Structures are given as structure tokens and as C-alpha cells.
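In response to a reviewer's request, we include the raw inputs and outputs for one of the modeled complexes. The two entities were modeled together in a single run.
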Amino acid sequence: MDVSSSNLTRRGLLGGLAGGALLASGALSAPVRAAAAGARDPLPGTADVVVVGGGISGLVTARELARAGRSVVLLDARDRVGGRVLNHTLANGSVIEAGGAFVGPTQDRILALAAELGVPTFKEHVAGDNIFAANGRTMRYQGTVPPDLAIVVDAFVLQLRIDWMAGQVPVDAPWSAPHAAEWDAVTVQEWVRANTFNRDTLTLLQSFLQPTYGSDGEDVSLLFFLWTIACSGNETTPGSFERASSTANGAQDSRFVGGSQLVPLALARQLGAVVQTEAAVRRIAQDDTGVTVTSDRGQVRAGRVVVAAPPPLVTAIDWDPLLPPLRQQLLTRLHLGTLMKVDAVYPSPFWRAAGLSGSGIATSGAVRTCFDNSPADAAVGVLLAFVGGSTWREYGNLPLAQRRTAVLQGFAQLVGPQALDPVEYVEQDWTRERWTKGSPVASAGTGTTTAYGAQIRVPFGRVHWAGTETATYWAGFMDGAVRAGERAAAEVLAQR
Amino acid sequence: MDVSSSNLTRRGLLGGLAGGALLASGALSAPVRAAAAGARDPLPGTADVVVVGGGISGLVTARELARAGRSVVLLDARDRVGGRVLNHTLANGSVIEAGGAFVGPTQDRILALAAELGVPTFKEHVAGDNIFAANGRTMRYQGTVPPDLAIVVDAFVLQLRIDWMAGQVPVDAPWSAPHAAEWDAVTVQEWVRANTFNRDTLTLLQSFLQPTYGSDGEDVSLLFFLWTIACSGNETTPGSFERASSTANGAQDSRFVGGSQLVPLALARQLGAVVQTEAAVRRIAQDDTGVTVTSDRGQVRAGRVVVAAPPPLVTAIDWDPLLPPLRQQLLTRLHLGTLMKVDAVYPSPFWRAAGLSGSGIATSGAVRTCFDNSPADAAVGVLLAFVGGSTWREYGNLPLAQRRTAVLQGFAQLVGPQALDPVEYVEQDWTRERWTKGSPVASAGTGTTTAYGAQIRVPFGRVHWAGTETATYWAGFMDGAVRAGERAAAEVLAQR
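The model returned the following C-alpha cells for the whole complex.
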């Protein structure tokens, strides 16, 4: 086929600016964005590989391919890179994350990438007590599980069972687990109900499910949940519920100084004019000699395509030929739920002086899960709530003022009345993001993994699949995005 | 807003031919289709209402609106009308259905419509014995449930329980059933497993689930299934499993002489130039004064839009503003499964002479559910199999010759070795239909109905919802399509 074999730097200066230097500023003002778009070169007509999606996974894919000498064009629909990873600059200039933020041990690939790119991490603040609020009372605790007598036995046994069962789920083939059919016919909710004495135990588990999936226990297959737990490890350390749910030494162990979006921004800067934004892909047509990708900024003809976009966006593309039926089924059944991240900003992290960590769990209200989201230098104090699943449905459609009040009351319930009076209040609702269409981490209901799961990484002719959903460790996380990008690039490079 | 108020007949002769007379021929040859497309008028720039989707539901909507004096443009992506209802002409000239086909008592609206349009019905052939094939042996039986001693008690009790529970599910608000949360957290599979002694009972129930939903018991929420049963009735006769699953006096009681697509074809003929085919809708943008619908054949500006398309097609449209989050969630969680209809044609319905009905159920192989699909005059004999859900996954991707052999062996197991030698073999795989994207009847997994179900008929600004999925009786069926179209049209007409 007719594709050029030029390298990373063949595009002109303006393209380079648009893809790299300008984007690296993180938050472009609207006029700057417009100028960049207006000044942009046309898309190159051909490339060895087109990568669809400029989140971490697509950027890693593009970089690996470019490093191997392939000509690459990366198309993203947004006017920025990072996808579900997004920095937000506060009034005082501090940066917090509005999307994927936390990293932790065994997340080797994102940590290695960030280190290479010069983006340091810092430990999430954990000193002090956590707060558990239930049934109108609060208790202080340390660690992951509140020592509520009504649920502690349930929770202890449940955690043992979850880890034991997750240990039987192969991370690269959960559909082949010995009890896959049985576990995939049951929801997390039904399984917890049948295996606990106290209904509140499920409420506690929602504090994991809602922030993770933007969904509740009745939405998620037990097998898929066990796979998520199995995935929260690496090649030498098996996943565990403790790892998946904990702050210190767990999935929320650390954050990036300056915000996680520095990682995709640095990748984009390296890639220069490879990265083309505001180029929503509308159609992907392949034939015997190549693939034609049609975007809002024109067409690119390529030898291979790597798609690194969330499932609801992939199924909205006009595919010719159609996606294979089993992949179509799989993608439509990987659900992005309902989730917003809400941050309240205070002059300082006042809760720390009161001996509180800023972490907490509540069984009611708008704030079910709370973290200290202050920047590394604690120049301001920030509390973070995940409002997900049924909690999103309760609050997500309220007028902003009402929701703000409910969230601040939720924070106050956990760290005291000072929380009612923030200097800044920030919402990022992934449910309403045109180019994500739901909570950042996909989940599957019953029947999906066993019937369609095996399709997840199967190439479709000249089209390969990246994106954190296709990872075998930390799927749904930034680490999974890196791993998926590396795997997809290797797959393409292995083609003649 | 600026919409014209012209009537049904304002478009020119060629448009009328394309929308009516030509389509009425049923199966257009490729050259005829091309000529029709080439000769077509441009789309009108404005209309009172644009209807998206030319299945029965959209056509009924358009007709009701046009009758009330509204100017209407109906856009369909295909080169034909009928959507999931499609005739197929056999070599001898007989017509069978490749999509929705059966009608029965309480399906009042489709029966009234067909009668008005002059499309008569005839009774599905039921004389003779049905065959049940399980574990290498076959038995003859009459009625719906095979008298297999291993399952008959289970099946009897299960049916009583299903009807009793379905009786508690309001057809227009299943999410408000007394036990909605509990029933929506459990799959049909898990519930049957927990409430039966013999595993084969579930296998038997698959013979209902696979043809209906193109899905299996682990894919479908118990609450959604019970709603389907509740819906299999009308305003005066409650639904029942017997009604939903039976041939005589049930959902498969009758068929249309000349094929069910005669109904949408007759509607399209009445509507004339209102109906515009090969006009896939790509974008729907609404503002304070109207809605702009962008199709492959240009834009139409309207005061209101009624969308009557399957859920996976609706979410693939570029919506501006975005679909409300709860509707986006609902539509992505209404799954069209995997299903093909397969017909084998013989010189005559030879099984009838052997005292067989041609109906049967098997617990293994490619043919799990079989019907006599011979035309009204029995000019040829036709056997019909639904290959759905996990059975589709087993056979749907095989080479045609292998699948053909498996299907014919399946027929032979039920009606004898003569079935191995058909004169014609016809497949219609809805799983691979670009403009359906799955089995004709949607189903919902756990958690969907309670969380998102209430959105099903809620208008989105100037956009209203038709389509059989929005019906409150016989949702998923042709009758539901008519009911939904009538309801949506009334909704639009009730606007000032």
C-alpha cells in the first residue's frame, strides 16, 4: 500500500506547536485553542499507523511505534490530550486532578513512564484517623475497613473469600476461570447478599464499587469484579482486595506532583505533530490494502489502525465492514457508569491538625467516599468526593447549588463543619463528557465476560485494540492504559 | 420556528414513487434501487416533524402525524422500509419472513392495523405432535411444555411462580414493582437455578429466551424478564408465560398472508414521499427554536423529532446537546443480542403427513427451537429455526456450509431425515445487520430497569421516543411497535 515512511519530525513547526508546545501548557485558554486550531496544518494523507485516541494508552502506542520508525498520526476528538486524565488548575495556581489521579505499588508501567518523563510522585496523605459515618453516628478508624461491629466479621470473611476467588481468575482470560459460568451469572449484589449477615456490608462495598465503576453491585457481574481484583497486581504479585481498595500501599498510594495529566502532556510534547486534536474519528473503512480513517479534520490512509478509545465511542464510529458481531456485543456491554469527581478547596488542610486523614466513608448522603486531594505542597487543602452510581443518580441531576450544599454537608459529616465553607468548589462530571460518555472505568454486567470477553484483544483485520479496558493488570487505571499501549504497539510491530 | 405546513402530497411524483409504489414491490432489484435513489428529489429543508426510522413504529408515528395535518419527513438508513420486519421471496415465489413474523391474541394494535391495511392473517400450523429432543432421545408432546418427567414438576411450579411474580410488575413502570430492586439484582439464570431441582429446566427456558432476546439466562435481569411476561397481554388481559411462549392462542398464534412486511410496505405506500430511504441520520442538534437532523441525504429542520430506531443506532448518532446521561445509560444497557433466523425449504411440509406439527425443542445442537414456517397455501414446506444467544455464538461464526449441515441435522433430529435435503436454505442474521446491530428484541441485564428504566419514554427537549422498546404491551414485538408509534404521535400532537 501507499504509505509514506517519514518520521516523527516531518510535520511543520505549527503542527509541532499545536501537538506539543501549546498543549504542554496544560490548560489552554479558549482563544489560544482557537488560534492553534486555525493555524493547524492539514492532516497528512497517509501514515503507517493511525492511532485513534490521545489518552495515555494511545499516546504510549504512538510513541512506541514512532520510536520503531513507523510514521504515525494520532487523532483525538478533544482539543487536548489525556482523555480520562485531566488536570485542573485552582484559583491559587495549584493543580489537582479531575480524572485519573492515583497510582500505587505494582503499577509498574505508569510509574516507570512517569519517572522517565520526569513527573515525580508523592504519597497520598494518610496520617491521622479515617472517619466512618453510618446511621447518624461517626467513628474514627485506621486502614481500609471501619471496625463497625455490625459488619466487621462479614467484611473480614468477605475479603478472604474475594481474594481466594480472585486468585482463581486468570488476568488474561477471566472467562476460563474454573467457576467462570457460575460467577458470571451472579451480580456482586446478589452474591454479597447471599454471603453476609448484615445488609450494611454491601453498603460498605459500594464505597469501592461506586468510585471504581460509577456503578453499584447490581450492575456488575461477580466474575468481572473478581477479575478487577485479580488485575490489581503485577506479574509477580497477585492482586488483592486490599491492594485494590487501600490508600497506603494500595491503589490510592500516591499521586503525581503537578497532576497526572503531566504524563500525557509530556508524551504529546515528545510526539510533536504526530498528535492531532479536534479530529473526531467518524468512520473507519478497511480493505485488502489498508485502512481509511475519516475524521472531522479529513482522511488519513494507513496500513494499520490502533483504537484506544472508550467503548461507547468505538461503537459510535461508522465501521466498514461492521465490527465483528462478538466485538460489537462486547463493546456495547462494557458499560461506563455515572460518576463525577467533586473537589472542595480550603485555605489549608484543616482536618490534619484535628488528627484526621481526610479519608472517610459514609453510608448515606452525597459523599460516600472522601479523600484528601491537597496538592503535594499543601498550599491549599482539598477534599475529594466520588459521586458515583446510584449516588450520582440521586445528586447528579440536581441544580448545582443544591448538589454543592449536599456535597459540602457530606464533607462536614466526615471532617467537621469547617468543610461547609470552601474557597472553591470544582466538579468534573464524566457522565456528561461528550468524548468519554460515562465514568472512566468500564464494568461488565453478568454474562458478558464468559460470552464475549475473549474478544477483548483480538485484532479486527488491520485494526488493533489499545485502551485500558484491554489490559491484563490494572485494567481501568492509568497503569493498564500504559500496558495496553505497549502491548498494542508490539502487536503492530510484529506484523510484517 | 420556520417550518412549512404542507401536507402529505406536496412532494413530487418521483419522490412518491421512491417512497411508495416502488417500495411496495417488496424486494427491489439492485438496479431498480439505484434508479430510485438516483431519481430522488432532494430532501425537503423543513418539516413540522422528522421521524427517524422506517420500521412499523416510525411509519405509524408518521401516519398519525400526517393524518393530523402535520408535515412529516421520515428518514430511514436502509433502502427499504420495515426495519426488523422483512419479507423474503423463495425460489417458487412464496414469501416467508426473515424478521418479525408472528402475531397473536391481545396484540390488538398490529391486528387492527393489518386488518385496516388489508393484510389478512392465517393460523400457524399446530396440528400434530411437537417433538422434544434431549439427551439423545426424542418424545412427542402437545402444548408448550414437554412432559419430560425430569423437568415437568419444575416447569409447572416455575410457570406458576413466573406468572405470579409478573402479575406484580406494572407494565408501564416495572421499576416500581414491590420487589423491583431484589428482582433486578438477580439474573434469570441464577433465579431459575435457585428455584428448580433439575438443571435441564433452565435449558428448556433457553428455548424461550434465545429466540426472544438473542440472549441467555445469565444476560437477562429477572425483573426485565418478568416485565416481558407482564407485557404479553393487553389492557384487559394480563400477560402470562403461557401467552408469551405458546403457539396456538399465544405469541406465535398466527402469521400474515404474504408476509409481515406487507404492513410497513402498505404504510409507506400511504405515506408516499414522506418516506425517504438511504438517509442514515448522523446528527441531531436541537436549540430553542427547533431541531436540525443531518442525514446522508442532507439536513431537515423541524419543530419536533420522533426517534424510532433500535438503541445501538440511537447512541451512535452525534447528539447536540448530548443525550441526557440517564438516557445514554439506559440505551447502552438495552442490549440487542445475537440471533439469526434460518429457514429450510422443502417441496411440501412432509412432517404434517407424519403427524408432526413441525414445532419442536432440542436441548443441544444448532436448532433449539423449530417452527413450521410454510406459507399460508403450503405451496412449499418451510422449517424455521431461531439460532440465538449462546447457540449463535456456537454456530454463527462457522463457515456457511458447516452451519447449514448443523442446522439441517437439527431439523432432522426433530422431524426426520427428510429434513437433510432441502430445496432451499435461507439465513437472515440480524447480528450482522448494519442498521439493526443485533437481535430484534432488546433485553436488559441486572440493575438497568430500576436505575434507568423510568427514562424510557421521557422526551428529550423536542425529541420524542417511539420504537417497540418504548411500548407497555408487547414491547419488542410488532404490536409494541404500533402502540409506541401511536403513543409518540399523540405526545407530539399534544404539544402546542
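As requested, we also summarize the result in words. The longest helix of chain B spans residues 400-415. Chain B has 18 helices and 21 strands.
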